[in-house]
Amino acid sequence: MDVTWGSAEAVLADNWIGASTVPSRGLYPHQWSWDSAFIAFGLRHLAPERARRELVTLFSAQWRDGRVPHILFNPDTPPEAYFPGPAFWRAGRTSGLVQPPVHARAVLAVHRADPAGSGAETFLATLYPKLKAWHGYLRTYRDAGGRGLASIVHPWESGMDNSPAWDGPLSRVTPADPAGFVRRDLQHGHAADRPSDEDYGRYVRLASAYRDCGYLDERWADVDGGFTVEDPGLNALLADAELALAEIADVLGLPAAAATHRDSAARVAKALQETLWDSASGFFFARDVRTGERTREYTCAGLLPLVLPDLAVAPALLATATGPRFRLGQVHGVPSYDLTAADFDPGRYWRGPSWFNVGWLVRQGLLHHGEHALAAWLRDDLVATATGTGFAEYADPFTGTGHGARSFGWTAALTVDLMSTKDTQGRQGRQD
């Protein structure tokens, strides 16, 4: 057995809590939404039945309106282990926020890894209507801008919590009194790697405001000092998720539904390019719905539309990715923020470091657009960096030094996945 493979497998075994996988035993001791999807991509190679259970467990917590909550709390974990915990959210066993919709692509990949086991458990038939309701929630309740794009109401929903792209919209938010909560994250990580106290106070203020309006999106627009942003990363992944859902519908023998999902993917992709693409900059920027203005920060979320195989502006976006702002192929992974920015920080949460899930997604995009050599380079770099850092949460793009938690779930899982695939497929095929 390869040492890297065995080490990654050991991380996933240690983080397994019986029905799901925690991202980190110390820092994140519950089930996180998009973490579980990425973890399932790796588990499918090791234990497909565990990968299926991972996703079924997550969707067991789906809300009636279709949203998939970003945290499913483990009742066996002490309340003081994580903040904000279930008492804060007042939503039973879940939070009330969401995360990017990478689940349909994970469900399809898990099914393909073991079609017989999947069929015996009616895995696809069980999750298809749940995925359809999840995407429907994002496309309807969250279309705050009225342009066919889903909006996030909190930085945590982007999955890229501390991104500089949120600084402008967050500036309207008054931080919560720090005396009113305890930052549990600082007990497990260095303060220099984590969001500032001021930003964390804003996160708490926003979360409590959304909670206090009953998690009703139709009321959120009337909340003063709120946060409503169209994120290019989340919407690119939503369009890709609709394409995956179309493939699931095909497997289930639902051709009309498959056509509907492909049409939906095309509409989201069209709105994404019309609303968030800046041709002069060669980049996708987030848009503050409350002001109508695009943010101007170059963050890795703006690279994620590369996952879309028919992206017309892919050549220009690839030029930005390989240019001085991200230097793809010259540094470790995919930097989360513009390397040339004055406030770039190689170690602070989403303000510069490279994250393994972003690198994994960008590699998929490179394969779609014929960049096989660069995809192979990125694959090898991600595997080497993950192994060298003890499967760190994220890494310095210049030195490869690990930051954040170690033995991190998706880092280990995506390492397994990368070691199980070959960069031989381009636009005509996807390595699911």
Describe the structure.
By secondary structure, the protein is mainly alpha-helical. The chain contains 16 helices and 11 strands. It has helices at residues 3-15, 33-46, 48-59, 86-89, 103-113, 115-120, 123-140, 167-170, 197-212, 217-220, 232-251, 255-276, 314-322, 356-368, 372-388, 409-419, and strands at 31-32, 71-72, 151-152, 229-230, 277-278, 283-284, 287-288, 293-294, 354-355, 394-395, 402-403. A 4-stranded antiparallel beta sheet has the order 3-4-7-8. The chain has a 3-stranded antiparallel beta sheet with strand order 9-10-11. The chain has a two-stranded antiparallel sheet with strand order 1-2.
Question: What are the defining features of this structure?
Answer:
432 residues; 3-stranded antiparallel beta sheet; 11 strands; 16 helices; single chain; disordered C terminus; mainly alpha; 45% helix
